[in-house]
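Example 5.3 — Exostosin family domain containing protein
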Amino acid sequence: MRLLPRRAHLRHHHDKALLLKKYYKWILWSALSIYLFFSSSSSSSLFRPLPLRTSLPLKTTPRALAEARQLSSFTTSSAAAALRIFVYELPSSYNRDWLSNPRCRNHLFASEVAIHEALLEYPGRVFDPNEADFFFVPVYVSCNFSTPNGFPALHHARPLISSAVRFISAGFPFWNRSRGRDHVFVASHDFGACFHAMEDVAIADGIPDFMRESIILQTFGVSSPHPCQQAENVLIPPYVTPDIEEQWPAPEKAKRDIFAFFRGKMEVHPKNISGRFYSK
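Solution (predicted structure tokens):
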């Protein structure tokens, strides 16, 4: 009879911990969004917001437009006050050595590099890990262009990240303290932290056990439940180089001979039901 109150007490603490985790995930998403999308520093921002325009005179400002203007008024100092991030200084074999290939900085999955470089200049970056709210683990796993078709190979991703986790857990107490719950990784390639380009293999492999409690910044996202989303994750866009405006004219000024272009897997039955052939 005395076990029931204890179980209720444990359930209360469990629910409270889940609520706190969701709250900090929201704080992380908000702060990163504010900094990365609305930073006024061109050297550290990844994207520049487009100016808000309307072609019709308005007697009252629409609510969505007013909220967007209010959001854009946030400064990087506001983001810094909301979130303090410690960036691990890992050996260069985990990140910087991969930059010997220039493609590592500007291909479709290069957000793992761009986010790392942005956080190094982030006003809320702290150098004392005891002051940090979150810990960023900068490991580049999408820069191994060793396949015959030139696509990034991901077979090294799991052992490389596992090695990084062993490195930080041996030198710092913070991973073991939270079991990685306040640690952030980037998985900017196909199927996120499942680390495989083919969905059937990615599902079979799943997310590594040691990453299941961490926060994943990933480009993969679907609305239905998926094994490769069974970890705390924040959806981010694929990487586009900041100088895209210089390379290509604005859409409203360009004369188009191609309306749309598809680049991805063609999962068409019966020849390619597995999705193993890419479009040209």
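Remark. Residues 3-38 form the longest helix (36 residues).
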